[in-house]
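Handout, section B. The chain below has 329 residues.
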Amino acid sequence: MKMKALRWYGIHDVRAEEIDKPVPAAGEVLVRVLYAGICGSDLHIYNKGMFIQNVPETMGHEFCGIVEEAFEGSGFAPGDCVIANPMVPCGSCESCLCGSFNTCENLGFIGEVRQGCFTRHIALPADRLIRVSGDADMKQMALAEPLAVAVNVCKRASLKPEDSLAIIGAGPIGLLTAVIARSVYNVQDITVVNRSQTRRRIAEALGVKAAAALPEGQRFDKVVESAGNPATLQIALESVRANGTVLVVSVFEENITIDANLLVCSQITLIGCNCYDREDLETAADLIASHCVDVSPIITDIFPVEEGKAAFEKLCAREKQAAKILLQP
């Protein structure tokens, strides 16, 4: 049986074409994809060819779906709603041996090192799947994976309600970090910075302040850099108070330098935030299912897989008119 898939052939070259429906291997469960989100890392693949190991490859790692086939003892049954932990760690490096799979030295993801989710069916090991409530809004549940990134950022920030927080970059991760900071940690003083008016309006719809630039001279207790630009990292370091914390969640497409003297003289704590762990994923899914967070304002478009190329072009446009785009097989 054939199915449509969005596949990467090269920089700016993604194609909707037919591939074979996967046959689950031993230990795998077959899932029908309901919605799949285009991630910032997918844009790095699209624009720079980063991460991806196979050509061609079916892209995508953020999704929610329904189990169609499951083996006895898997813990799943047909009809179960699921999300997935899409990380593919090596299992043998020092981090993996310590159980820190998100810092694996050779970390890959589905959609990079094996078939991704920009298609109708995907087969994954049962231990990669997480059952979620069937009563949840599945469009929002498709954002559980990037929301888990935000859960990790806020956890590593040790946020307190009295903190002042700046988030530089209003892509999905920046916006989702604002959602977690406000809804879970009760932080009231949140400013999201982005040049795109569309994304500033989304931030305001989420209940936080938005600005095209940080007010000159204003300092924050904690600053999250989620734009992935050397200039924005410098702004983050210059905008945090002495003894404050800068958290970096971006993936940078080029090598950068920082002012180490600024770190030293102001005693700034610089924290890297990479992905999440399984507990973060479970937390994110529970927050969506229980309506503790509403991430629907971040979903700006839904495209069929066949129009995936247009979705990438919209996300890469100079004037940002989209935030999170979902693909629907």
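Note. Residues 242 and 266 are 5 Å apart (CA to CA). Compare this with the example in section A.
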